[in-house]
Amino acid sequence: MNDQDKKFAEEEEIDLIAILANLLNFLKRYRFLMVLLTLLCLGLATFLSYKILQPHYSSEMIIHSEVLNASEMAAVFNSLNTYVKEEKYSLLSQKMNEEEAKVKTLEEVKVFLTNELAIDTKVEEGRDSTITLLVIATTPDLQSLQAGILNYIEGNDYIKKYYALYRISKQEELERIQIGLQRIDSLQKAVLANLSSERTNLMNVGGDLYENMIKLSRQERQLKVELAARRPVEVVEGLSNFGKPEKNRRFIVIVLGGGVGIILALAIGFFLDIGRAIKERGL
């Protein structure tokens, strides 16, 4: 290394040391300001986080329907989420048949298909579908919102109309089965009345009638159960209550508040130094 390079290296080293020294002096001069503004911003952030930000609780709800397909259920619950985002609590209170204060605790309702496809993915239009709802609220009592969510989908005009048609079709199917059972009963009586002639063949016919009667009887019982208990949607797994918030957003806000205080103190100190330098140079 020649003399010129050594001189340049020494000057560069001196410049770096001077920069570090100036930085330390800057921090020492404004240390009280930094501490004061950091504490003030921490206090303000803490106050706002507890005054404005509410803890969020979440739980999943699995819903099954033999009446609706997945896209229809998703559309209805997406409309519910839209009402929540637009804060139309009075209207939601009516549709959910819940108190407005309870409805206001809802923050978001997300819909997921059980096959983990996106909502805009094409799904089969067949019935007998299942979806998952992620419900986020500011109350830990999420179970109290479940009935209102079911009331919302069952009170939908399209759902009510389609469900009425579904029940009519099931009732017509039940009537056809009952007519079939009546015919089998008439044929059995005819078999018993003619038991003396062609005995073996008639007994075989009677056995077939008996099997058909058993099959139709089971279908009749199943339809009666469905008509008595079936709802547009059934809850496979309901909402659960959690004791702790889903996310500790308050801690994040408080930390950010402290960071804002430090940055603000550095900015004020920087502009004060610039003003002092301008005065000293008479600019």
What keyword list fits this structure?
283 residues; alpha+beta; Alpha-Beta Plaits; 4-stranded antiparallel beta sheet; 9 helices; rod-shaped
Low-pLDDT sequence parts: 116-125
Order of helices and strands: HHEHHHEEHHHEH
* CATH top-level class of the domain at 57-161 and 233-237: Alpha Beta
Q: At CATH's second level, what is the architecture of the domain at 57-161 and 233-237? A: 2-Layer Sandwich
**Span between N and C termini?**
43 Å
C-alpha-based Rg, rounded = 37 Å
CATH topology grouping of the domain at 57-161 and 233-237:
Alpha-Beta Plaits
Largest sheet: 4 strands, antiparallel
Gross geometry? rod-shaped
Kindly state the number of beta strands.
4
Account of the protein in words:
This protein has 283 residues and is α+β, with helices and mostly antiparallel strands. Among the domains are: 57-161 and 233-237, 2-Layer Sandwich (Alpha-Beta Plaits), CATH 3.30.70; 168-229. The protein is built from nine helices and four strands. A four-stranded antiparallel sheet has the order 2-3-1-4, with helices on one face. Helix 2 (31-51) packs antiparallel against helix 9 and helix 7 packs antiparallel against helix 8 (199-229). Mean pLDDT is 76; it is low at 116-125.
Outline of the structure:
The chain is an alpha+beta fold and 283 residues long. It contains 9 helices and 4 strands. The longest helix is centred in the middle third of the chain and has 37 residues.
